[in-house]
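User: These chains co-purify. Model them together.
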Amino acid sequence: MTATHILHVDLDAFFAAAEQAVHPEYRGKALIVGGTPEVRGVVCSSSYEARRLGIRTGMPLSQAYRICPEAIFTGGNFKLYSYFSQEFHKLLGNYSPVVENASIDEAYVDLTGTERLHGILLKAASDMQSKIKSQLCLSASVGLATNKLVAKIATGIAKPYGLYYVLPGREKNFLAPLPIRKLIGVGYNTEKKLRSFGIQYIGELARIPEQILSHTFGVMGTYILQRANGIDKRAVENRLTPKSLSRETTFATDTADRQFVRGVVKYLAHRLAFKLREHKLRTQNLSLKIRYGDLLEEQKCLATIPLNSDQRIATIAMELFDRLYTRRVAIRLVSVKASNLVQDSWQLELFEQNELQTDPLTQALDEIRKRFGKKSIATADLLYLNKYYTSDKEGYVLKTPCLSR
Amino acid sequence: MFFKFDHKKMFEIVKNIMRVVPAKSTNPVLSHILMELEGNTLFLKGTDLDLYMWGKIEVEGQEDGSIGVPGQRVFSLIREFGGGEIEFNLEGNKVTFQQGEGIYSISGVEKDDFPSFNIVQKQINTFNISSSLLGDMIEKTRFAISNDMTRISLSALYWQSRPDEMRMVATDGHRLTFYRYMETDDTRPELDLLLPGKTVTHLKKLADDYPEGSFQITVGEKNILFNINDYGLSSHLIAEKFPNYEQVIPKDNDKELIINKDKLIDLIKRVKVFASPLTNLTKFELSESKLRAYSSDFEVGTKAHDEVDVAYKGDELEIGFNSNYLLEILEHIEADEVKLSMKSPLSASEITPAEQKENEQYLSILMPLRLPEE
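Assistant: Joint model of the two components:
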C-alpha cells in the first residue's frame, strides 16, 4: 500500500481576516470581532495584530477594550464568513476529489494518489496556500502528513500562514515533545487523569502499555495510545449531505428567564427547520443542549419520524427544553441539533394533505422568507424576542452573532 | 385458594398471557397475571390497558379464590419446573408453588387492584369467522399498516364486513394493501372496524395457534372481543375515519407487465444492494421485451444495472420505486406470476397476482419514488 497523504488547511483568524478582506481600512490594525465594547459579549475572533497585544478568543469585550482601547470593534457578519467559507472549500476541490469540510474555516484534503497530477505535494500545498491568499485575500496555515491527526496538529504549529510537513515515518517523533492535550480525544477529564499518572507529553503517553490505558479509559484507551503513536486510520470523508445540522447561541448575559429562553429555542428551531428544507433533508433525531452559567452541559434527544416542518421541530425542541431545564442556574447557551438525517422523501403520497409532505403553509412561508428575508414573517409569539434583540433582514441579531448561526 | 395443575398446560397458557403483560409499566399491577379459580377451572388474565387477554385451563381445584402473581417471575419459575404435577396454594397474599420437595413462595396482589377485564360494554353484534380465513386476510394486508403513531387512522387495519363479502385494507400513505373475500354468509353483519396495529399482531398469533378453530367475535360500541378455544382477546377500536381508499385504487393504468414473481424478486434484491440506503430507489425501465433495473449511491460511488426478459404491454416507461416496499408486496403474493399495472412515473401502480384465486381479490397499490433529475 502506498503511503497516504493528507493535508489539513485552516484559515488564520478567519472572521477577522474576512473582515479585513472586505474592509481594506481594517488591514494591519488590531481588529476585534464580537461586538462593540458597550454591549456585553465575548471576543469571537481577533486579528493577529490584536492577539499580539494580548486579546484572546472568548475574552469579555469590556476586558478587551481595557487592554486595547484603540482596537477596531465590530459585530459579526455571518453571511460574509459563509461566503468566504464556500469559496474556500470550492478552491480546495481543485486539488483533490476527496475534501472533508471539517468546519467553517478548516478542511482536510486527501492528496493520496495525486502525485502524478501535482508533482511534489509540498509544492502543491504551498501553491494552494498562495492561491487562497491571492484569490480570497485570506491567510491559511497548512499541515501535510500521512493522517488527519498529525496533519491537524502540524497546522497548529504552522500558524500563522505557515506550512508544516511531517515526513512519513516521523509522526511519532513529531508528536513526542507536544503536551498531551494536543491529541484529539484527550479532553479536560482525560488530561486530568493522565496528569495524575505523571504524564505530560505525548511521548510519555506513547510508552504506556496498552493494558493500563484500556483499564482506565476502556476502548478509548486503545485509541488514545494509537494516536499518541501517530496512528490515525480515519478516512477523509467528503459527505455530500451533512451528518447533522445545528443552530445555537450564547446569551449576552446568562439568563434564567424561562419564557425568553423558550422563545429563543423556538426561533433556533425555526432556523434549523428552514436549513433542513434548504438541504432537502429531514431529521429523525432532534437534540437540545443547555450550557449553564457554571459551564455544566446537559443534553436530551428524541427520535422522531422524519421531520422538516418549523412547527413540529419547534414543538419538540421546546418540549425537550422544558424537560431538560430543571436546575436553578442561569443558562449561558442553548443549541438545537438535528441528526440522523435522511433525504427529503421523493416518495410520492397516496393521500394528499398529509404530514410527510412539506405542507403548503410551510412552503408559502419559505417563499416569503426567500424573497423578503427570514425576519419578514414569523409566528406572533416570537415577537416577544423583539424586546431583547434587534433584527435585520436575516432575522434577529443574536448577541455574539458570529457564534450564532 | 388451592389447586394442583399440570406443568405443560400451565406453561402454555402463561406463555400466551405474557405476550400482553408489559415488561415495564407505570402501574406496577399490570406486570402481574391475575389468577381466578372457579371449581376446576382456572382463569388467567393479563393486560397492558390497550389489550386484555385471558385464557382458561382445567386444574384440580380444591378451594376457589383469586390473586395476581408477578408475571415474569412466575413464568420463569414454571418454565424451569420439570414436567408433572405442581401444587398452588394461597394464604393471605402469599402464593406458594410446590413440586416434590421444592417450595417457592412469592407475594401477590389483590384482584381489586386490577382494571376490569369486561371492557365490551354495549354489545352491537356477534358473529363467527374461521381462524384460517381471518389469519390469511391479516397476513396479506397488515404489512402496510403505518407505524407512525401520529397518524392514528393509518396505524390500524380497516376491516369491512358485509353479508356478501369482507374486505381488509391497510395503508401507510405510500402503499396500500387490499384483500377482498367474496362469499355470501347471511349471518355476517354489516360492520366497518378499525383494529389497532398491536391488536392485529396478537390476533394473528392466536389465529396461528389455532388454525383449525373459529373466532367468535363480539363487537361493542368502542371495543371488540375475540374468543377462540380457551382464549379471549379484547381491545379498543380506533374511532377515527379511515381514508377513502377506493379513490386511490387506479382505474386507468394502461401499461401492463406480467412476470415470474421469483425472477422479479431476485432482480430487485440484487440491484438494491447498490442502492442508496437513504432512498432505496430502484429505477425500472420498461420496453417491449425487457425490464431493466438501475440503482446507484453517489455517496459511495456504486452503480448497478441488470435486466430480465419480460412480456410488457404499453409505451416505454421509466419509473422508480422504494425497493423495500416493492419486495414486501411481492413476497406476500401467493402466485407464480405477478401483474404490475402502471400509468406514469408519478401515479400509483397496482400489483396483483397474474390470476386471482376464486372468491378473492388481492391487490397492492404502490406510489413511485420521484426520479432524480439527471
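The CA atoms of residues 24 and 80 of chain B lie 23 Å apart.
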